[in-house]
């Protein structure tokens, strides 16, 4: 069997899933299948994606039976299962035996490892053991607050941290199900009243997990970093890529997701991530979020996502095709020399001019203009082998729509990023 005999099967219709299908197409010339609960614009009129719309895809049996149907339709090819959504990652791991019986390659860690690393407290415990810096954190145990009196207990939560603070869920999969006014991927909290309001909504909703309140590391979004890694089934980290985040998304549902990344090598982060993955026995793709602390000059690590991440195309564009490390390991079963994505490239999903508005450092702006003049600016949706006229118009509309989003949610750049 060769890589050409595989088929990439993505779950979820976002730009990150398209980027994964694109990586497979670039490396092996194969089209992919993407399942989504509704038709999505990143997949619309694509020549390399067959977008299958499955209503109620987040119902477990619907999810599993739909994938089994895809495997049957492509009998004779080895389907590789890809997703960037935490809930789907968990479903794949929990039901791995059934999916593998249908023929799927499931490149994800064990359930035990997932439980350890996807919990922000578990992540911090491993980092502390390894001497990897993390932010000071207070854990708000929502079920305990509910048991202690609900909203009446919120005001009694002890908080030995100074505002402003960052609030975020400990468990992203549980966060998928909770709904309350003002819910965001990450909450920026300027005072105790704002914190108590969020905690009050969570106790009212009966949220079953912890909510983390963390110190805010100073600096704007250009101090944020991203690291993507792949640790193969033999225990070797065969892919590492790092980049400087230049701009994050600011709509409530996508807050904190990088919209632009400059590929840059950070050896200390690569070393820390390797030690973390080795210590936990991790297998598969992982994406670390971290930030340069200007007070100490050290990188501070926030979390690891047990998946490749929505912004994964910065890795492929930086010289390390993500499809190759996966197929060589899990389909062909052969070792490869570890890859590093080190080519200086700017990844962006927003218009270049809009990005420049939010980059405040003059030297960094000059550097980005140089990269554009050298043709080293990439948008994952703008693929020269997927360029029908209607497709080009759709992708340009998606790109330009970011102007409206930033005008509404983040109209002017700030020194903090919010």
Automatic annotation (TrEMBL):
One of its GO terms (molecular function) is ligase activity. SUPFAM superfamilies: Glutathione synthetase ATP-binding domain-like. Residues 124-331 form the ATP-grasp domain. Keywords: ATP-binding, Ligase, Nucleotide-binding. InterPro entries: ATP-grasp, CPAse_ATP-bd. It holds the Pfam family CPSase_L_D2. This is Carboxylate--amine ligase. It comes from Myceligenerans indicum.
